[in-house]
From TrEMBL:
Keywords: Glycoprotein, Membrane, Receptor, Signal, Transmembrane, Transmembrane helix
Lineage of the species this protein comes from: Eukaryota, Metazoa, Chordata, Craniata, Vertebrata
Chief location bin: membrane
Listed transmembrane segments: 71-95
Protein name: SEFIR domain-containing protein
Native source organism of the sequence: Erpetoichthys calabaricus
């Protein structure tokens, strides 16, 4: 039996006994003593009840520092570990998002024309989908044509519209003739959307109604729509079928005079209103707000077709 004596003046001597087991010639012994105070001189008298054992005195002074609770050493590594894992997750998420956006940008720009012209990229319209005829002019250049394609793709892919566009029906147009094909669709569709710009307004307004240039199909279509619109006004029919849109600032300065009475929307700021118009939905009523995802100017690019439209707008007006 080992006996540890510890002295702390002026306290009395206190003793501690510990069993001493000897095995394979090894007589070393470990023991833990507690309740020591910093800054105090301690004398340890170590002795054994074994035969011919010698006693030994050991002096030790504990430094005057406050011991840190064990819980600190346990909690601190856990906090470091949790913080490290959270930071690693955030970094990985940000990197992944950047790669996804960058990859989507490259992929979207490279496959832009191919995807929009491919019929497989178009979803089958629902039976209740409104039939929309898009009217535009190609004289603005290829960037504007890509914008029209992207807009048609977005209406059909995300907004549940059945879109008729000449670029998707070239074979039918070649068989029927462009003017005949255009006239039949303007009459049969639910809505006619005319994409206008300041250049096109000047082009249409300089042509008299008698001298319609049918070689410029935009001028011909606008003149035809203007004639139908005037007749509907005379006979007090609903003119909500005819819609004018523009992706530029002041839509009134870009609308031909024959279409001034048509409903006008500036895109993409007014697109929720256009969506409501096409589907005959009241998005906002007293005490009721109907939410449709990814049709606002702040989030329409979150879907694939909206992202292609965003790229087309950027290329057409901001490049």
């Amino acid at each position: 039996m080992l006996m540890f004596g510890r002295t702390r003046l002026p306290d009395l001597i206190k003793s501690h006994r510990s069993p001493h087991k000897k095995s394979q010639g090894n007589s070393r012994l470990k023991d833990v003593l507690e309740n020591f105070k910093p800054g105090v001189n301690y004398t340890f008298m170590v002795s054994s009840d074994l035969t011919d054992s010698a006693s030994k005195e050991v002096y030790y002074v504990f430094p005057e520092t406050e011991s840190v609770p064990k819980v600190v050493f346990i909690v601190a590594p856990l906090l470091v570990m949790v913080t490290g894992v959270a930071l690693g997750f955030i970094i990985a998420f940000v990197c992944s998002a950047k790669k996804k956006v960058a990859g989507g940008l490259n992929e979207g720009e490279e496959s832009f024309g191919r995807c929009l012209r491919d019929p497989q990229c178009q979803t089958k319209p629902l039976r209740v989908a409104p039939h929309v005829f898009l009217c535009y002019s190609s004289c603005e250049g290829p960037a504007h044509t890509h914008l029209v394609l992207a807009f048609a793709h977005y209406l059909q892919q995300h907004c549940s519209c059945q879109v008729t566009l000449d670029l998707w029906e070239e074979l039918v147009i070649a068989r029927e003739g462009h003017v005949s094909w255009m006239s039949s669709h303007i009459e049969s569709c639910d809505f006619v959307i005319i994409i206008c710009s300041k250049t096109l307004k000047d082009l249409v307004d300089t042509k008299s109604s008698v001298e319609v240039d049918f070689r410029n199909l935009f001028v011909a279509s606008v003149s035809l729509v203007g004639e139908i619109l005037g007749q509907d006004l005379i006979f007090k029919r609903d003119i909500s079928k005819f819609i004018v849109v523009s992706f530029q600032e002041d839509i009134h300065l870009q609308t031909p005079s024959v279409l001034q009475l048509a409903t006008k929307y500036r895109l993409m700021e007014d697109f929720p209103k256009l969506f409501s118009h096409l589907h005959s939905l009241e998005l906002l009523q007293p005490g009721l707000l109907l939410h449709v995802s990814n049709i606002n100017q702040d989030d329409y690019f979150m879907v694939n077709s909206g992202y292609l439209l965003y790229c087309a707008i950027k290329k057409s007006y901001f490049s």
